[in-house]
Amino acid sequence: MEGWQRAFVLHSRPYSETSLLLDLFSENEGRVRVIAKGARSKRSRLKGTLQPFTPLLARWSGKGEMKTLHTAEAMTLALPLSGRYLYCGLYVNELLSRVLGQEIPFDELFFDYLYCLQGLASATGTPEPVLRRFELAVLGHLGYGVDFLHCAGSGEPVTETMTYSYREEKGFIASLVLNQRSFTGRQLMALSDREFPDSDTLKAAKRFTRMALKPYLGGKPLKSQELFRQFTLPAGPVSPSQE
């Protein structure tokens, strides 16, 4: 199937009267922007296909920043995300849309993304471990290298009970100062293994990935995070009958 690529829709918006402008995340070319001409028309074969979380086989062409989508077929049904897992999926899509340059291959990250969606679709508890592993994978593929297992000051292996301060572009340095940049050796070992056995290591992982991703995201807030906050906030006072 020459010219076909596996891809997912990261974001879509109307373009002209009947078309869609899509950001795709593809296996071979990374993030690609394409125009799906006529995709919004009632008779379009693509209607209902170009949805987030649906594994696609797609073909496009063009030499500029905006390609033209020729065809797309769903490989399977969309991965079933609902409730908070849906908002987590939207966050993952927005994160990739924001941090990836156009047409830069990230073939390994493509599978990290797929495994992340599968993890969210099958999750029954907190989605936090799945999200933290994916964020760490994104940082790794962007070339953000950090040694979690050695003190950047001395080169000595970290110890579980020692405290280390995070320094951008340097790593973790042993320090007795406790603040938002402080991590225990145990937390750093969990980050290195990408395994978070308890709430302490999960919270530490979230704190680290927020700091590490900030330079890539800039000052503009993520829309998906605001949507999730609105989703989780109570709608109003709860009456006794609702308790």
TrEMBL record:
Pfam families: RecO_C, RecO_N. Residues 4-75 form the DNA replication/recombination mediator RecO N-terminal domain. It comes from the Bacteria. The keyword Cell division does not apply. HAMAP family: RecO. NCBIfam families: reco. Belongs to the RecO family. Involved in DNA repair and RecF pathway recombination. This is DNA repair protein RecO. It comes from Tatumella terrea. The lineage of its organism: Bacteria, Pseudomonadati, Pseudomonadota, Gammaproteobacteria, Enterobacterales.
